[in-house]
Amino acid sequence: MAHSATSALMANPWNDPEAQPFIRIQGVSKSFGDYVAVNKIDLDIYQGELFSLLGGSGCGKTTLLRMLAGFETPTEGKIFIDGVDMSSIPPYERPVNMMFQSYALFPHMSVEQNVAFGLKQDGVPKKEIAERVAAILDMVQMGKFASRKPHQLSGGQRQRVALARALVKEPKVLLLDEPLGALDKKLREKTQFELVNIQERIGITFIVVTHDQEEAMTMSTRMAVMNQGMIEQVGSPVEVYEYPATRFVGEFIGSANMFEGTVVEEATDHAVVRCPELDADIFINHATNLPPGAPVVAMVRPEKMKAQVEKPESQYNYVRGVVTEIAYLGDMSIYHVRLATGMVVQISQTNLRHTAEQRLTWDDEVYLTWHPGNCVVLAQ
Amino acid sequence: MNTGRRSVWLLTAMILGYAFLYGPILSLIVYSFNESRLVTVWGGFSTKWYGELLQNQKLLDAAFLSLKIAALTATGAVVLGTLAALVLVRFGRFRGRTLFSGMVTAPLVMPEVITGLALLLLFVALEQLVGWPSGRSMTTIVLAHVTFTMAFVTVVVQSRLAQMDRSIEEAAMDLGARPFKVFMVITLPMIAPSLIAAWLLAFTLSLDDLVIASFVSGPGSTTLPMVVFSSVRLGVTPEINALATIIVALVAVGILVAARIQHRQDKQREKDMQRAYASE
Ligand SMILES: Nc1ncnc2c1ncn2[C@@H]1O[C@H](COP(=O)(O)OP(=O)(O)OP(=O)(O)O)[C@@H](O)[C@H]1O
Ligand SMILES: [Mg+2]
After folding, report:
1. Could you report the per-residue pLDDT of B37-95, keeping only the tens digit for each?
2. B159: distance to nearest CA of chain A, Å?
3. Secondary-structure class of domain A255-377 per CATH
4. Which-ligand-closest: CA of A56?
5. What atom in ligand 1 is closest to the CA of residue A65?
6. Where are the domains of chain A?
7. CA A361 – CA A343 distance, rounded (Å)
8. What architecture is domain B60-236?
9. Would you tell me the crossing angle of helices B138-163 and B57-90 to the nearest 10 degrees?
10. What pLDDT does residue B279 have?
11. What average pLDDT does chain B have?
12. Is A92 within 8 Å of B189 when comparing Cβ atoms?
């Protein structure tokens, strides 16, 4: 995770009220006929960020990106890039380049000509074009395919050409629509790091669309989780994972156990939630800011739950169940535990020891416990 | 057994079908090599009618005129038809789109007699109003032919444009190319095969037309089909057979080339698609 190290050093501009956002999206909506694809989005993105737009299929990610690139006009709202209102600026004059979901390589041009196209439009001298094209093709390891036509390339190779073509102009903002979708897992992870490295080296702002949450988590400085044309939450990967703002975000990012219940006690330093599914009340070591009686969802991540055979001493934060399924994933195992009510809870454990010494097996009766700080309470 | 019988049946049907379609043409080709002046009597093999054809200045002039008209027509029709196709595919919904689309393709189903008559009336009216086109000549034939072949061009180009991935043009624009440049360096090369096919189609249609040309031609602008038609009314000569054979050969080559281009393009697209899916 190249990013977490650097972002700790870097002052985070989004926490600085003085900082000017580089891209400002103000109340932007886009309707196709009656269908609202993007719904009143407000978003500030800062210089040098690697910002991810994350969401399920059809939630409007591509549409938002296309509005930034200038291929769609917002039905409502305004977009500013580097302080300039983009409303009347055509795509060919915007300081952004886009890598298309379908790659959109020019089929009648070689790899080299594809990459050189953008520089040619800017009237860059021939010699410089040749140098820059060669350098960028080397960077994406496509140097030896320079004279091939797009239809002679595999999906992953095409993707890298598309990336090189968008990168070579060194725009102020690079928009990437599912840049790594066609790559296999290994190559994808490698390319993720490469992308982050490139981004840090040339320092341009990346906006990456993806529906792969792991990818968004590894690469981004911040991410926006979208649902049905709206943004549910914006935050750093840690914030979004540990403190989801809505039930949708909690379920979309990672796995989550959700218990529906009501607040029964609320104080400045703690709160108690009662859930019919659980044997004991949930104790949370901070205020929920919700009145007693408010319906809530309590979320506990699978890795935050511990399984033990003995009944816990505390009167809070546990539930009894039976192990019904074990999935061995190598580095860790996932257990399904069925509660008395029939609800199935997922827990995961890192496999520190060999499997032969595993403590839990099928049909074991266990108590699941968690720390008061590890439960997130979301208003219903 | 079953399949065997069916294939015999299919074979018979096919032979009969082809015989029906191409029998007359075949006999025409055979008789063009006939020694005898009588069209229905075989007098031995000879190519003398081809030689005689070359001496017939009237026929040669008409053939040359027809070729010129066809080339001009095809070029004009491809330009206008492509523009119409662009409007239909790219402008999205606009007021009167359905009407426009109907008007563009109407000549496909309009009886030629009506097209010809309407154009004749238009040219006469125009001449009285603005003095152009003065009289009926090659110009009026070309104009009339462009009008009716443009519909075919539009249909061919439209289908190709509709299949084209829009984001390829968007990518070019995104990289800094203005719309006109995008059209010239991205769109045109990508639809070029269909433009060639459409050109050949328009060329053939124009070369072949008798009805419309008869309406709008004037003295001194007699096209080949008109000459052929009028001379045949006085009796078929082996000379005409020879001429027809040459035309059939030309048209066959034209169609073959067009079909090959179309076929190669389809194959290419299929291959690209397979590759794209295989690599996903
Ligand atoms: N030109 C258009 N006309 C009509 N509807 C459209 C158009 N473009 C997009 N939509 C609709 O808008 C919605 C959002 O589309 P969009 O392409 O932004 O989704 P996405 O989040 O990128 O999805 P995916 O992850 O599948 O790429 C979809 O329901 C889509 O059908
Ligand atoms: Mg998309």
Report:
1. 877 788 888 888 888 888 888 888 998 999 999 999 999 999 999 999 999 998 878 88
2. 18
3. mainly beta
4. 1
5. 18
6. 14-248, 255-377
7. 19
8. Orthogonal Bundle (1.10)
9. 40
10. 47
11. 87
12. no
Q: How far is B176 from chain A (nearest CA, A)?
A: 4
What SS3 class is residue A280? Answer: coil
The CA-atom distances, in angstroms, between A333 and each of A252, A328, A357, B260 are 21, 4, 13, 59
The alpha carbon of residue B181 is apart from the nearest alpha carbon of chain A, in Å, by: 9
Q: How far, in Å, CA of A357 to CA of A11, rounded?
A: 46
Residue A154 in contact with residue A142, Cβ under 8 Å?
no
Chain-chain contact of A104 with B276 (C-beta, under 8 angstroms): no
User: Is residue A175 within 6 Å of ligand 1 at its C-beta?
Assistant: no
**3-state helix vs strand vs coil in chain B, percent to 5:** 80, 0, 20
- In sequence order, what DSSP letters do the residues of A110-134 get, joined into one string? -HHHHHHHHHHHTT--HHHHHHHHH
**What SS3 class is residue A186?**
helix
Say what the ipTM of the complex is.
Answer: 0.83
* Whole-number pLDDT of residue A105: 95
Are A169 and B175 inside 8 Å of each other by CB?
A: yes
pLDDT in tens, A211-242: 888 889 988 999 999 999 999 999 999 999 99
The answer to whether residue B170 neighbours chain A at the CB level (below 8 Å) is yes
Q: Where are the domains of chain B?
A: 60-236
pTM as predicted: 0.81
The arithmetic mean of pLDDT across residues B7-26, rounded, is 87
| Terminal-residue alpha carbon distance, chain B | 45
Q: Is the pLDDT of residue B1 over 80?
A: no
Per CB-CB distance under 8 Å, the chain B contacts of A117 are: 172, 175, 177
Across A83-220, where does the E strand assignment appear? 84-85, 96-99, 173-177, 205-210
Reduced to 3 states (helix: H, G, I; strand: E, B; else coil), residue B22 is helix
Take residue B27 and report the two structure tokens written for it: 């006999």
Instruction: Answer whether B180 touches A (CB < 8 Å).
Output: no
Do the Cβ atoms of A100 and B175 come within 8 Å? no
Homologous superfamily, domain A14-248: P-loop containing nucleotide triphosphate hydrolases (3.40.50.300)
Q: Six-digit token pair at A128?
A: 């410089």
Instruction: Write the pLDDT tens digit of every residue in B131-156.
Output: 888 888 899 999 999 999 999 999 99
The finding on whether A211 has its CB within 6 A of some atom of ligand 1 is yes
Residue A318's pLDDT is 92
Contact between residue B151 and residue B108 where contact means Cβ atoms under 8 Å apart: yes
Compute the distance between CA of residue A358 and CA of residue A366 in angstroms, rounded to an integer: 14
**Residue A329 identity (one-letter amino acid):** L
For chain A, 380 residues long, the average pLDDT of each consecutive 10-residue run is 45 81 95 94 93 93 95 95 94 94 92 96 95 92 90 87 92 91 80 85 89 88 94 94 93 92 91 90 89 92 91 90 90 91 92 69 90 90
- Residue A369's nearest CA partner among A286, A310, A294, A296 is A310
| Ligand 1 atom index nearest CA of A55 | 21
